[in-house]
TrEMBL record:
Signal peptide: none annotated. InterPro entries: Glyco_trans_48_dom. It comes from Cladocopium goreaui. Residues 15-306 form the Glycosyl transferase domain. This is 1,3-beta-glucan synthase component GSC2 (1,3-beta-D-glucan-UDP glucosyltransferase) (FK506 sensitivity protein 2) (Glucan synthase of cerevisiae protein 2). PANTHER family: 1,3-BETA-GLUCAN SYNTHASE COMPONENT FKS1-RELATED, LYST-INTERACTING PROTEIN LIP5 DOPAMINE RESPONSIVE PROTEIN DRG-1. One of its GO terms (molecular function) is 1,3-beta-D-glucan synthase activity. One of its GO terms (biological process) is (1->3)-beta-D-glucan biosynthetic process. GO terms for cellular component: 1,3-beta-D-glucan synthase complex; plasma membrane.
Length: 341
């Protein structure tokens, strides 16, 4: 929103009038001292400025789960998704914490995904606006990308209001340092950019996750932006795209590359190995879900076969691995002798 002031004053624009930043902290109630310090720095850094004669409530909250009873006795516990910001009062029992501004009771033991999927679906109720973008904590934007934000938001513009869309964007991998980092960054680029570009061209792109922008109104109608089921659906983001596609109604998923978000990963060997294991396991679990069966029943053959590309890559790599381990070079002399004879 652009605010026009008298000519003798400068014309100013408060970005927090149009955009808000929400951070999901599932472990806030169990933070250590240094983690509380970092959380306070985050709240103060993104606190909304005060002006025009009255204090404004911050729209930049963090969320945490609070257990009111013994954590071991889960059946007797109550769990809440809570909203805090820099203007919340301190807790008398623990000054490091802040009293929540809003609390929404969650049914049963809600921590299913123990991570991003559960965080996103619990935190989306506190967001404002009609378009939402979910990014990980190891991602960051660039100043020049901010200038392209109006173009990205314009992708949702239509004659009848906001279009029912998921608009995907590429990532700039910043952890391409050394041979191991370059291998991990190349795999991330292929998975998050090249494949998604191909899927979008063929009309079968689902949803990679971050840094895609989504029409929040439609995503909330289908139950959220992730499938938070612990150890069952490791690729939690793609199910938002599958449910979005299955609902039909002129919904579409696009891919654009004029805007990107930086992303860095841990360069340790175990971290890279865990990432690839997560991809392969998640791909296998997708074949067992209702969404994949329904897509096979509803989509035509070209669109249905396109997502299987990703699931054929592990088989291709496994075949190459068998050939390499078989040491094919030792058979070359025998082949030459047969051809010469």
């Amino acid at each position: 929103m652009v605010e026009h002031i008298h000519q003798d004053k400068k014309m100013g624009w408060d970005a927090t009038e149009a955009f808000s930043c929400l951070g999901c902290m599932q472990r806030y109630a169990d933070f250590k001292d240094h983690e509380f310090k970092h959380a306070e720095q985050l709240l103060q850094r993104f606190d909304r400025r005060k002006g025009r004669g009255h204090a404004k409530q911050s729209e930049n909250p963090a969320k945490y789960h609070k257990n009111l009873a013994d954590k071991i006795l889960r059946s007797c516990s109550s769990y809440y998704s809570c909203l805090i910001d820099a203007n919340c009062e301190r807790d008398e029992n623990d000054p490091r914490k802040r009293k929540p501004r809003f609390r929404v009771e969650l049914p049963g033991f809600p921590i299913l995904g123990d991570g991003k999927g559960d965080n996103q679906n619990s935190g989306i109720i506190y967001t404002r606006g009609s378009i939402i973008q979910a990014i990980d904590s190891n991602q960051g934007a660039y100043f020049e990308q901010m200038l392209l934000l109006p173009c990205a938001l314009g992708e949702f513009r239509s004659t009848g209001g906001l279009a029912a869309r998921i608009v995907g964007f590429a990532e700039h991998i910043t952890s391409d340092i050394g041979s191991l980092g370059d291998f991990a960054a190349g795999a991330e680029t292929a998975f998050g950019t090249v494949l998604q570009r191909s899927y979008a061209t063929l009309g079968a792109r689902m949803h990679y996750g971050h840094p895609d922008m989504m029409n929040k109104e439609y995503m909330m109608q289908q139950g959220g932006v992730s499938k938070a089921t612990k150890m069952l659906n490791l690729s939690e983001d793609i199910f938002a795209g599958k449910d979005f596609t299955l609902r039909g109604g002129l919904r579409e998923i696009l891919h654009r590359e004029y805007l990107h978000v930086g992303k860095g990963r841990d360069l340790g060997f175990n971290s890279v190995l865990f990432f690839f294991a997560k991809l392969f396991q998640g791909t296998g679990e997708q074949l067992l879900t209702r969404q994949m069966k329904r897509l096979g029943d509803e989509l035509d053959l070209p669109e249905f076969l396109t997502p299987l590309w990703l699931q054929s890559i592990p088989l291709l790599v496994f075949t190459w691995l068998l050939l390499v381990l078989d040491d094919p070079e030792q058979n070359f002399p025998a082949i030459d002798e047969q051809q010469g004879g």
